[in-house]
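As a warm-up, study this chain.
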Amino acid sequence: MKVNNLLIKLLVLFAAVLRFAFLDWKAPHFDEGINGHFVMQTWSLGFFNYDPSNYHGPLYFYYLQLAEILMGRGILTFRIATALLASAIVYVTAIHARYIGRAAYWAAAVLAVSPAFVFYGRYAIHETMLILFQVVFSYGFLKWHSEKNSRGIHLMVVGIFGSFSTKETFFIFLGCWLIALAAIKLVNKLLPKKLRFPESIPSNSKRRQAPNGEGLRQNTKSLKTWALSGAVGIFATLALFSGFFLDLQGISDMFTAFAFWTKTGTGHTGHEKPFFYWVQVLWIYEWPLLLALLTTVIASLWGSFYMRLYSAVGFGIWLAYSIIPYKTPWCVIGFWPLAIALGFLLVEFPNSSLRTALKGLALASIIFSLSKSLELNFKKYHDPKEKYVYVQSTNDVNILTETIAKRVAEFPEDATMKIQVFIRDTWPLPWLLSTYSSVQYGQLTHNDGLGEVILIDGADQAKLEGSLTRKYLRIPFHMRDAYGSGFAYFAEERFSRFMKGAGVVVGAK
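Now compare it with the structure written out below.
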């Protein structure tokens, strides 16, 4: 099927602008600090020391390490690297058009402007890489199913083992895909003939009929390709999890991780949400995906093979994540098959009048998503009232780190100044402050040798200020919405020129 390259370029360009613009506005997230810490450990050890209780595979950390080699250390480097992956999701979705036609363009448009796909594509967490590998698997499946092309098998293997090496939750997607294939085959046999699709030839495909004897040769070749490609995938995965065979414990730990994840997914962690949490999220932000979700049951019973497949997979993933009590909002990007299901609905719906009405509704919902995306990503990215803004650091973190950086830029010797962090919840500060050699963490138990910069919880204000022996500039410091407010103290003689009148002078008269 002919692919509209110009349209694809425009979609990817628009998606990239949304993902790359003003990446440094938002303060580093809790998880970004954790990820940065693991990259530092990888540099220190020479390999990633896989920990099954971390629930994240090694591939993303190596990717961030490569980004540091190419672009240097810093949060902007991590986010640029992730935004590349996020833009690639839109591209790979769009080139599905080779096999599913215009449905792919609709899907790519939905993902290009989606508040979730933009928001979580703009900072450094694993989910974006995980979804990219899923989309690559999807494209490989279409290539193999439509053409019996061995490259399709290679892409599916890359998708499977790439997902596995990124995050353990990959099995939800793969399980839903396999269940959907089996269910569709069963439902197709049970439906009246007029509602069935031709099982031998998928929709929008021009696969040629194999001559006698060639089918067997094709199957044999496919098995050999699966075996060879799978062996390479297994070897690469074992290498990644074992630190390139320097830490063999990682091989057994990659299976242990599923036991940890199961306990987390069903236990009490503070991230539990009700069953219909995702419907509420889709209603607030993702109208195109909600429209697709509401039509998946109908689409699964009617339409082409591929339409039923993506509808069933999308519905299955939504159902699985709804049943699991543990819910963090970035998991919503796992519903991406619903975007393709919506595309099929707009292209294949048999009644032309209703199809036109659906296209109008879908276009309006895409415009709504774009408006929400612009508001969320460029205005309310720190607003805790937004459901996607989850355990997000406040701009106070940026003020803290930028103030210190200004002083050190002018006086490099101050990179050794004492910085004392006496707050309960410190991340992402251990990574952000790791370039300074004299950072102390702990509890405020005494006041000897107080540092040039001090962070405390609000409850410790009186205790600290009652024993200060020199003047400090005090400013409010609030790490994140779920965390109590506190204060940051900067030694006045060092920082007054860099704070432009901000802060209250406290301490010795």
